[in-house]
Amino acid sequence: MENAGKINEEYFKQVILPNSGFRRKEVLVGPNFGVDVALIDLLDGRAMALTSDPLSLIPTLGLQESAWLSVHLMANDIATTSFSPQYLQTVLNLPTSITNAQFREYWQYIDHFSQQIGVAITGGHTGSIEGQNSTIAGGGTMITIAPKDQILTSKNAQAGDLIVMTKQCAMSSVAILALSFPETVKQRLGTEIAQKASDLFYQTSVLKEAEAVRQLNEKQRVVNAMHDVTEGGVLGAVLEMSVASGLGVEVNDEKIPRTAVEMAVCELFELDPRYCIGAGSMILSVKPAHETAVVQALVEQGLPATVIGKVVASSEGRTIIEDGQRKSLPYFETDPYWAAFFGAYHKGWK
């Protein structure tokens, strides 16, 4: 547990998976590496999907932006089911330095962003604790209830599926770094890039992707699985979906969407955009006969979509084609974003 970020697959399998409480038959999907939600059979044709994530409180970013991350990073996990979230439970262990006025503002934004996406806040716990100086102020659980046979998980990818990526790499990393260190980014990269990078922040929701896929799948199942891009970036998300489904993957590096803005910011902070936190992008596992229809439906909703690879048999492994060479797809246990953020902070970047 010495490294920052999520635990790796091996640690998960050794410590978490064998110790996951009483085994109940109605639990359809329990703890799984690379799976965004748990599923519980409600025994009436519906299932409950649940996800849990940290709640953000990042002083350098701002209270409004922190509240957005707290709500939408959980909502993005629920979106991988192809449904929107309905309920939210929160647990806040706040720093004692936060004032009543600051908490009131933060909580009003939590309420506002929840209302915007139709989420009821149904309970939780709120308090403060000495020594709490983290950018993580607690945790939350989002829940939705939907027809059982229509819910997607990242476990359901099928060999032969094409891997479609929406939007671009590293959206949330680029936006948060630009907002957290605005003077440095503006000075080094110019006003235009700094502004465009900051503007990415409120584009880091994937609920529109969920709605587009749900509508497509109501007519005919064309998307088998989805996984949102978080820690580990787009390539980490692809690898996690591979682990979850028990299949291999092949990714074409040159197909991965990159923009001048993200490349400039990532170069400044010495990041590879393919491997750092990329909330706002979704990975879809699409039946090959329906690639065009899926991409077109996403584009019509203002969501750029690109085929970046395919799902293959497990025997073919996990590979990436770079500069015409087939290589093993690496997985970094610690997202490089964290070192970049705290490195800039300790350098005194403003």
From TrEMBL:
CDD domains: PurM-like1 (cd06061). It comes from Runella defluvii. Residues 158-319 form the PurM-like C-terminal domain. This is Hydrogenase maturation factor. InterPro entries: HypE, PurM-like_C_dom, PurM-like_C_sf, PurM-like_N, PurM-like_N_sf. Residues 36-143 form the PurM-like N-terminal domain. Pfam families: AIRS, AIRS_C. Belongs to the HypE family. One of its GO terms (biological process) is protein maturation.
